[in-house]
Amino acid sequence: MEYVSRVPRPPLDELIDDLYYLDGAPPYARLTLPPMPSALLIVNLGAPFRIRSGTDIETAEYADGCVVTMPTRAFEFGYPLPTRSVGAHVKPWGLAPFLPMPAAELCDRPVTIEQVWGRPAVAELRDRMATADGPHEMLTLLEEELTRRLCETAGLGLVRHTSSVIAFAATVFAIDPAGPIDWSDLAGGAGYFDQAHFGHEFRAFTGLTPTRYVEVRRRFLREHPGHVMDGWPLPAD
Fold this sequence. Notes:
alpha+beta; Jelly Rolls; Arc Repressor Mutant, subunit A; 2 domains; four-stranded antiparallel beta sheet; elongated
């Protein structure tokens, strides 16, 4: 299995986590993917994918690729053997500028790339990818196509800001004040390249430095044993 991934250049990096190339025999022929804060856009260059979403009984084939908005229900994704595709892991709000319809209309309803961009455009893109000189050129072709299709979406900035606040809040509440804290690891897990930037954002969000926040929480839990805040961080499933 060959897997190549890279972060796209601005402005796509604000919408897309990474672009990737996948080729070969996947470790799993079929995956059950849970609801997740992410979306997918995949251009298929091999045999059809098979997807069963939501409450569907039967799987459906997706020959040219698929678009999956942020799912609220688990869905099954079946790879052909072998498989070959170029795709994008998209941030929760990131698909909106590339769709001709509101992303909410596609909730838990995967569609083909053709349904989104039209058959001629998708056929041309797949042909160019099929004759490209290696994975990196294929990723560049997808990046250029996404950049060309990028359009201004009303309210996207507010959605992006709100989502980042929710994500930062989850990071803050996941801190376990009872144990040792690796601030560098925590900063990296929250998506920050350095601890200083994380500390600055942390103070802007909480009004406290990270170490002062932990001190305050420890004192609060000592003075209020059994409080609901004592349940954080929540256990992993």
